[in-house]
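On clarity, I found the account of how folds are encoded harder to follow than it need be. For illustration, here is how one protein appears when written out as sequence plus structure tokens:

:::
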Amino acid sequence: MAKYAPLENYLETNGKTHVPMTFADIESIIGDNLPQSARKHRAWWSNNPSNSVITYAWLSAGYKTAQVDMGGEKLVFLRAATLPTAPPKSSPHLPNSGPATHPLIGAMRDTVTVSAGVDLTQPTGVKWEAEIT
């Protein structure tokens, strides 16, 4: 993380909601080259915190990546002010559910009804198009 701390600091202190940058800009800020995977794999720039160490830098600063242009080696950091920083303590949709893992857990509760006697584990007998060879 220390390698990417300058990027986190840069994003935290700039105060802008929309920060366009090139890969070279990021390299200049961190004082080092980005790994080759940053130029080869779009997923490297995803906002999944388990994706790469640099992801923690922009997420911790309150940003997410957008408009990643691999060919042009540029992207935009957007302030993620509307994203929840932590999951809620419990879901309003699941009374007495304890800690929720995501705000959408339980959001569709009671929207599907399974008729009595229907066994959802049994095959339907219908072949899907993908199964037909």
User: Anything to note?
Assistant: The beta strands are 18-22, 63-69, 74-79. Helices lie at 5-14, 23-30, 36-40, 53-60. The first helix runs from residue 5 to 14.
